[in-house]
Hints:
mainly alpha, 68% helix, two-stranded antiparallel ribbon, single chain
Amino acid sequence: MRLAFTRDILEKWNIQFFVIASLLFQMILLFLAPLRKWVNNGFMYLVIWGVYLLASFFSTFALSLIYNHAQAQEVMNKFEFINFTRRTTYPLWAPFLLVHLGGPHTITALAMEDNNLWHRHLLTQVVQVLSVLIVFYKYRIFQSEWLLPTAIVFLVGIAKCVERIFSLHLASSNFVRKSIRLQDSPPPPAAAAAADDNINSLDEYEIIRRGYEFYQTFKGFIIDHTFIHDECGTMKEWFSKLSEKDAFKVMEAELNFMYQAMFTKMIAVQYLEKNFFWCIWWFGSHALLVTVAVIFFNQPNKHRYLGHVDIGVTYCLLGGAILIEAIALIHLIFGHWTIFKIMNSGCYKNNKVVKNTILPLINCGMKLISQKKSWSGKVIQYSLVKHSLTGQRWKWAEPKLELFSLKELIDSLLHTQTAEVGDRLKKLVVDNIKRKAADDINNNNSQDVMAIILPLFKDHTDDDYATFVLTLHVATDICYFATEKREGDDEEEEEEEDAKLCIQISHYLAYFLVLEGKITSALPGSIGMRFRDVCWKQVRHTFDHLYSTFNAAATRTGRIWCWKRTSRQKACEDLLSDEYCEVMISTRYENSVLPKAVEVARKMKRRCSADPEAGKQKEFWKGLSEVWVGLLVYASSHCRGDIYYLNKGGQFCTFVRLLMAHFGLQDSLKGERSFNLHNQIHSSG
Length: 685
């Protein structure tokens, strides 16, 4: 029974099935695509990717089925002398498929590469338009009673395709670079002229306006680090007056405009600020589709020669197209771009109705239809120690997985988590960058950090950045989980917060060095390499060293090491024992940093355990957190390609790097500054 039903769908109703599937996937894509902005989840991105590809597949395949049906009808006409082509709605469905191929307004590109390949998309869309014209010819549309509604929908479909291609072109790296070159000097934000404004009056409208102005100034820098203009740093004084919360809100608004410009149709609609053609066209296309629906509804003879299924499918296509256009209009009206246009117009200050009624109404509607979050607000976490405790390894499968570049992907799915970016981390980052901008390296805090931290690393001052971070990552894990936690008053809670912050940054930077696959390095000596390729030997040898150390000791003691059964606390405590030191010496790896990490961890633990009542442990974790923040800032200034994560929930390093640009740290952002531990601790203090 089920098999017969399936065969009936695929043979008798195949055109109807694929046309409805095309509409269904357009609707799914319409609502799923915005999730890319704030969902930092690989599985969800995979789902959106699949829906994106299937939406184009169903539309193209349905169009080919309609063409094949026309071919079959021509054969029947020759032998039966009956013109069946006039008695079908298939030629009316073809331009609807063209509308679907134009895509919804919430997504034009899945990745930055799609924008750069806009020529290929243009050629594809031209072929698809020609395919629809051939269908019209085959069905002799000029002799059909559906000529007028078909022509109207075809016009809307053409406009949708032009919108998409124009959006891809405007968001391509070459066009952005060219547009910046044509500007002798990007207009500085209005905030520069209003530096004396009261910072306390920075409401949500003002945040949107400043975000748009900064987006216009720094959009070239976000895509390509080489575009650092003289305007970089003109807002340093204004930005320095902001709290860390307001500073990040402004940058969130800035990157939100960037996301919409890179991956949605909003850039095409808003391209010419004084030309409202596309805005008017969105209203016009909605009206045209409503007109087609009225024409079809009032067609008196459609029930005579059209089946109920074909009529239902046509109504679904009309209703779906009208709904998609209505949602696009709602997002256009109740959006950040509209708020900026109103605030930038003369009527905002002169008309109280606009300021007190229309603008709050638009803002209220925007809150109802969109998420408050502009990015995931999370950082990815990875721990070498925890990964090495996961039990049995399938060494026979690892070469095969590496051959197909699947090992890092599987490790990323199985051994990473996410952690919320808290206000404490934001404050430390802002304070660190402010000190760099002020060139204040002789403050008392810097001297305190030097006295606490530098003695621990006196034997590792010549290490390069990647080796030092990897060593400190393992040492911080061992020290944190092997140190006895104390519960008490607010000071102990603050101490624990600093310790957790060290772990959070440590795991975030470890993810870059071990598993990150897109972001490239600008570290001296490894420019252009992926971060995970910078120190791959040290990473592999350290991981193998940890794994073999645990298993060698487990064999001698009869233990079964698995993170689900044995806590990291027990494993880290044992790593500092004499028994494990013997095992590590007997299983030495040439490029492993584990012996150095254990040595540093022992010094760190002794520092923490020395007179805990005197606050030494609190001072230590506070100083170490400052060092980790400095390492994070250094990595952020030397990373390239983080724009690729703008549509994958965002990366915290993007905010750090953008904040450095706002404070005018051009020299640090050029990637020419080599890593020096003394200077790093100075600037972290």
